[in-house]
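R.M. (postdoc): so does anyone remember the format we settled on? I'll just put the structure tokens first.
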């Protein structure tokens, strides 16, 4: 009878330090397979496998699509690809971003829950916002075990705090205790169910989305209900899903967001719009000044005066936007309108 031998770990900001500490405390003979997602930019290289391999006793590497799952190994998601766990093998897919990230934590956690059910242990470490919370809920629903790093210990408390607040976790622990717990669980036999089949129907649309199943993309039967919001990445309609808290949103092609991430992405989009507006106003003011000077040279003071007025009005609007941007972009816009920021 196997133990809790499928361990999925998610981290973001501060994650290199947390992961290094965690894997430095795991023995080389622990009878489990480890799968790691750390939020990294889509492009570039990741040296995380080398770091984990040097700090700990377990060999770590970026897997290839279809690599078999073996005990005593650490599979690290490569940049720009979601790492998924299938029965007996790993999958790498360039699917839609979740919570603005690829690789993202939730797809890894969901697929592990579907494939291995009660054998799965999910661990959420240091990071901002709340990626990993929905995936940890899926692990618990499948009968697996959920752990979160103590937010007081984490360099960035957002991800572990969200996990602890929204999921009935089995432990909120410092890294040293997480490592000891993983060793104990790996050596504790667990009676397998049918690979998480009791939640497979709920997880399937989510997993189909990250793997870009054409039936889901082309079909009109979307989970949840129309939200009235649009996807920050593709600008398509978002559906609101209510399988649990926190509320999540997904668009037709699969981009997915928690409320916190959607707010963050909207703030980024708002700031980009403000910069665009500032640039357009500055160009308009420059054009008005140029036309005023041209009319003055032609001896048309009436037209020149109109263009001078246009220049002054446009520069006044541009100055307002400049002050908003200096005050903090989208948060500054909220302060200008209401006297306080949406962030308190």
């Amino acid at each position: 009878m196997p133990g809790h031998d499928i361990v999925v770990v998610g981290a973001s900001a501060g994650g290199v330090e947390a992961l290094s500490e965690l894997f430095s405390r795991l023995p080389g003979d622990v009878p489990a397979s480890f799968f790691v997602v750390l939020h990294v930019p889509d492009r570039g290289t990741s040296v995380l496998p080398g770091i984990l391999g040097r700090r700990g006793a377990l060999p770590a590497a970026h897997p290839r699509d279809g690599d078999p799952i073996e005990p005593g190994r650490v599979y690290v998601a490569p940049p720009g690809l979601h790492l998924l766990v299938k029965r007996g093998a790993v999958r790498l897919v360039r699917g839609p971003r979740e919570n603005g990230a690829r690789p993202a934590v939730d797809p890894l956690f969901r697929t592990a829950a579907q494939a291995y059910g009660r054998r799965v242990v999910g661990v959420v470490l240091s990071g901002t916002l709340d990626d990993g919370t929905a995936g940890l809920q899926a692990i618990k629903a499948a009968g697996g075990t959920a752990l979160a790093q103590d937010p007081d210990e984490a360099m960035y408390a957002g991800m572990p705090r969200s996990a602890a607040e929204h999921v009935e976790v089995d432990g909120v622990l410092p890294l040293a205790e997480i490592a000891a717990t993983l060793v104990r669980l790996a050596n504790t036999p667990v009676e397998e169910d049918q690979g998480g089949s009791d939640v497979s129907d709920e997880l399937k649309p989510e997993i189909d989305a990250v793997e870009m199943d054409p039936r889901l993309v082309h079909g009109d039967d979307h989970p949840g209900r129309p939200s009235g919001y649009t996807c920050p990445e593709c600008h398509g309609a978002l559906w609101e899903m209510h399988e649990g808290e926190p509320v999540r949103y997904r668009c037709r092609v699969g981009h997915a967001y928690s409320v916190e991430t959607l707010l963050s992405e909207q703030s980024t989009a708002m700031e980009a719009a403000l910069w665009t507006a500032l640039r357009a106003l500055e160009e308009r003011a420059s054009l008005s000044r140029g036309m005023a000077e041209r009319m003055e040279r032609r001896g048309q003071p009436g037209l020149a005066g109109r263009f001078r007025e246009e220049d002054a009005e446009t520069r006044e609007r541009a100055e307002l936007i400049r002050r908003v941007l200096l005050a903090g972009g989208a948060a500054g816009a909220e302060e200008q309108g209401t006297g306080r920021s949406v962030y308190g």
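R.M.: ...and that's the designed sequence above, right after the tokens. Also worth knowing: The chain has eleven helices and 13 strands. The two ends are 51 Å apart (CA to CA).
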